[in-house]
Amino acid sequence: MNPMTNVKNVLKLSERELASNSKSSWHDQYKDSAWLFLGGLPYDLTEGDIICVFSQYGEIVNINLVRDKETGKSRGFAFICYEDQRSTILAVDNLNGIKILGRTLRVDHCEQYRVPNADMSKVDELTAFVRAEGCAPTLPASQPVVPVELVPKDKGHKEKKKKHKEKKSKKKKKNKGKSDSDGSASN
């Protein structure tokens, strides 16, 4: 099927879903996969550019920008994995069909994606680790997650602002009184 037809079909699905007010979504069949297919990418985009665009909907833990084996240039499509599957729904609904550098993106769920088994002899240690583990930070199981407490705002700051405002208004009144007396004397 033509890529533009796919984009239009996904947009129609979303519109129908909004109009019907049903409790289930067409996205539900992809609830077990956090992978997305990205098609129609401009050839000069890098992994970093793609992460910048798509990270507005969640933490990206893995990316595979498919490149030509001989030249190393992008082939115009990629696969990304979000840390949270709910981010895929946001990305599909909001980024499918947008234009980047004159090209229309196709963003769709990817139900059964497997990370490619690249020739690991040509890959450095860091790249091999990222391909195997992803790039999201992980905590050891023994280390509990501790919530960060919000720091209360400094009350002294508000008081300083209030005093400054009072000084300003006094100065304004004083200057207004002077200009009134000066104006009446000249007439």
From TrEMBL:
Pfam families per the UniProt record, alphabetical: RRM_1
Annotated signal sequence range: none
Top-rank taxon, per record: Eukaryota
Residue span(s) of domain RRM: 34-112
PROSITE patterns: RRM (PS50102)
Region of interest (Disordered), residue spans: 146-187
SMART domains attached to this UniProt entry: RRM
Keyword Oxidoreductase: no
GO biological process, one term: mRNA splicing, via spliceosome
One Gene Ontology cellular component: catalytic step 2 spliceosome
A GO molecular-function annotation: RNA binding
Compositional bias annotation for Basic residues: 158-176
Keywords noted in UniProt: RNA-binding
CDD domains linked to this entry: RRM_ist3_like
Stored InterPro entries: Nucleotide-bd_a/b_plait_sf, RBD_domain_sf, RNA_proc/Spliceosome_comp, RRM_dom, RRM_Ist3-like
Chain's role: Involved in pre-mRNA splicing as component of the activated spliceosome. As a component of the minor spliceosome, involved in the splicing of U12-type introns in pre-mRNAs.
Stated family: Belongs to the IST3 family.
Subunit structure: Part of the activated spliceosome B/catalytic step 1 spliceosome, one of the forms of the spliceosome which has a well-formed active site but still cannot catalyze the branching reaction and is composed of at least 52 proteins, the U2, U5 and U6 snRNAs and the pre-mRNA. Component of the minor spliceosome, which splices U12-type introns.
Protein name as annotated: RNA-binding motif protein, X-linked 2
